[in-house]
Amino acid sequence: MSHSTVADVLLETVAAYGVRHVFGVPGDAINSIIDALRRGHDIDFIQVRHEESGAFAASALGKLTGRLAVCTGTAGPGALHLLNGLYDARRDCSPVLAVTGQVVRAEFGHHYHQEVDLNAVFDDVAAYNEVVMTPEQAPRVFAEACRVALTEKTVAHVNIPSDVCAKTVSGSTKVWDSIPSHHTTMPEQSAIEAAADLLNRSERVAILAGNGCRDAVDELLAVAGRLDAPVVRSLRAKDFLSEDLPRVLGGLGLLGDKPSVEAMNGCDCLLLAGCDFPYRDFLPGTGVPVVQIDRNTANIGRRLPVKDTLCGDAGPTLTALAQQLKQRERGFMPALHQSHNRWQEHLAAQEQAQDNPIKPQRLAAAVGARLADNAIVCCDTGEVTAWTARHVHLRGSRQRFILSANLASMAVALPAAIGAQIGHPGRQVVAPAGDGGFGMLMVDFVTAVKYELPITVIIFNNGKLGLIQAEQETHGYPVSEVDLLNPDFAAFARLCGGSGISVRDPDQLDAALDEALTDSRPALVDVHIDPDEMPYPPVIRLGQAVGFASARIKEMFGQGDSGAAGD
Ligand SMILES: Cc1ncc(C[n+]2csc(CCOP(=O)(O)OP(=O)(O)O)c2C)c(N)n1
Ligand SMILES: [Mg+2]
Asked: If you average pLDDT over residues 95-105, what whole number do you get?
């Protein structure tokens, strides 16, 4: 193209990097990008109602596909609205490019209307962060941004002054689309032998696996088999390490499962594989030797002192390790296996409860039972995460489960579902949401209607910020400022042009879920769950129980104004 504008070059570049959609809200500083989209390019603009939704949608798309996703916002406020979704992408290693507008160059530094120093603001979230000051700079800056986001699985940010964006690029507009092919990293053979020696000598090895093992399930299970070891997983690994696989005990942490805690407490050696699990309270004590496999060296040793470092891709590293491991029974599994069965029975009993009001455990299990074999679940943040983590039972290898794992932002479920459905038309997309979380970005339900996305939102409606109430109680604070005055979410969904069903009667739950999940329109089921049901940690520590009791006592005796936690 001899008359390509900077906006054209941007779109050609991201298209060369595999981008098909741009999520955002138009605005003056990026109008030339919107105009370039209108004139051509094989990219669809998805107009969201809040830029944060656009960033969450892009982040979800990147998490699901591993491919570059793009979101955009105009100068000042439009760009600032992107930040939370971008931090979600950054923390969960999703490759996202944020394109923001800027005031004209001549006004830089003069407090111009909507002038915000976006490169300063985005400096922390973006691994690559540039402003395009001349049209000639544009081709390489755009390519560099795409390349960094994609290869480092992180966030890149490009800020474009509005006068630059519309300018024709003189000289070469050749798109720099050098996409490095994936390379496999492997540890030294001597490191593998040292790690194998330690693992061979240990009697009670436990494996903690994370998202880094996504493409290495067979290799992981082969190592677990040789070591006769249990496999505990992070929440992000829920979809590829489902509990029906042999040796998989479940998740770890406050939202996790009890047998996993027993495995961590009882092991005499820990194999950490592709996992940067942050909650050190749930990891074995520092006396337990650790072997850690991670493609990213910076992750190794962050949470625990590591004895043997295996810096490499999980799949080939585990394969090489397995060759050095002696197969033998070690006597760690039988008790854990029994505990796993008991825990599953305990969960099943909660899921079968026919109580009125509806128990969240029953709702989650009922949703899980209806998921298609290739369903995508986009989960919110709150108690709803615990219900989904424990009681939506995934199966097979094609179902996907995503959430705001490391940023843990509320409101992510709906926009993530929009991104998931845009990227995967034809797949069932289900969003378990909190009433608080959904309320934050609910306007974008109408975006799902606009683009005919048949997502299903399931609201775990407890009328409050449930997780915060649980926190207040655990820390001994009297419960305060957590009640929500909610609108009728089902009526809202219908007003938007989707389907909306409100459920209070336990007998109507199954039919409502069936109806929503087979509706070709965006659907919402607002399920009023028991507000008093709270998810318990897998093991309750004395301090937590004391805090909980003291909060309840203070509430009962009206001493809610003493304030201090732990008194
Ligand atoms: C954007 C954002 N604000 C605040 C928080 C802190 N926070 C975590 S969970 C939660 C309450 C969530 O309430 P709701 O969505 O109703 O889910 P529930 O816990 O009731 O299931 C809050 C305020 C957060 N994680 N993200
Ligand atoms: Mg709630």
From this structure: 98
- The average confidence (pLDDT) of the chain is 93
Residue 555, SS3?
A: helix
Question: Which atom of ligand 1 sits closest to the CA of residue 408?
Answer: 25
- Which ranges of 373-498 would DSSP assign to H, the alpha helix? 383-391, 413-423, 435-441, 445-450, 466-474, 489-496
* Helix or strand (DSSP H, E) at 91: helix 83-91
Ligand 1 atom, smallest distance to 434 CA: 15
Is the confidence at residue 1, as pLDDT, over 50? no
The average pLDDT across 546-557 equals: 58
Which of these, 501, 406, 423, lies nearest to 461 by C-alpha position?
A: 501
Residue 410 CA to ligand 1 center (angstroms) comes to 5
Mutate to test the pocket of ligand 1, among 88, 363, 381, 404 (most ligand atoms within 8 A of CB): 381
pLDDT in the model for residue 563: 33
How far apart CA 123 and CA 156 sit, in angstroms, is 10
Residues 289, 189: Cα–Cα separation, whole Å: 20
**Of the residues 83, 465, 479, 480, which should be mutated to test ligand 1's pocket, given the most ligand atoms within 8 Å of the CB?**
465
- Evaluate if residue 565 carries a pLDDT over 50: no
Pocket of ligand 1 contains residue 460 by CB under 6 Å: yes
What does the alpha-carbon distance between residue 53 and residue 414 come to, in Å, rounded to a whole number?
A: 8
Give the tokens for residue 84: 């939370």
pLDDT in tens, 252-294: 998 899 999 999 999 999 999 999 999 999 999 989 999 999 9
| Ligand 1 atom at minimal distance to the Cα of residue 409 | 26
pTM higher than 0.90, yes or no? yes
Question: Looking at beta carbons, which pairs linking 143-148 to residues 24 or more positions away fall under 8 Å?
Answer: 143/13, 143/175, 143/176, 143/177, 143/178, 144/176, 145/97, 146/13, 146/14, 146/16, 146/17, 146/68, 146/97, 147/17, 147/178, 147/179, 147/180
pLDDT (tens digit per residue) in 305-314:
999 999 999 9
CA proximity to 155, closest of 59, 14, 78, 227: 59
What is the model's pLDDT at position 545? 60
User: d(Cα 366, Cα 382) in Å, to the nearest integer?
Assistant: 19
**Residue closest to 211 by CA, chosen among 111, 112, 92:** 92
Spatial distance between the Cα atoms of 81 and 477, rounded to a whole number of angstroms? 32
Amino acid letter, 8: D
**Confidence band, pLDDT 50/70/90 cuts, at residue 538:** confident
The DSSP bridge partners found for residue 528 are 461
pLDDT band at 9 (very low <50, low <70, confident <90, very high): very high
Q: Phi and psi at residue 305, in whole multiples of 5°?
A: -65, 135
Terminal-residue alpha carbon distance, the chain: 71
**522 CA to centre of own chain:** 22
